[in-house]
Input
Amino acid sequence: MSNCLFCKIIAGEIPSTKVYEDDTVLAFRDIAPQAPTHILVIPKTHIGSVAEITAENSAVVAHIFEVIAAIAKAEGLKNGYRVVSNCGDDAGQTVHHLHYHILGGKKLAVEMA
Ligand code: AMP
Ligand code: ZN
Output
């Protein structure tokens, strides 16, 4: 996707603070952290949001969750953490490339809506 911010980060056209990278997944620190640890985990292929996950592309989503668990361990989030994916306008999604927020390092607010 030529006009996608996260595709540009994957391509190295926009800098990011990388936490983890392999052939299919990239993780980097959020530019406006909402918690002491705030990391975004994204597929290297462009998927717009959770709404675009299908049987054909979901293998990378399973891998993303393995990566999330490993990153949380590496970051020392022993007391827990939250994994969030905003999907669409009502959820406030601002970057339309599938991403999972890892939030931790403090006691998080419990409000879900
Ligand atoms: P969402 O609102 O769920 O779509 O999340 C998008 C996230 O991307 C926000 O938390 C932003 O702070 C973050 N973000 C936007 N631009 C960048 C960037 N260049 N590098 C890292 N994170 C970014
Ligand atoms: Zn993209």
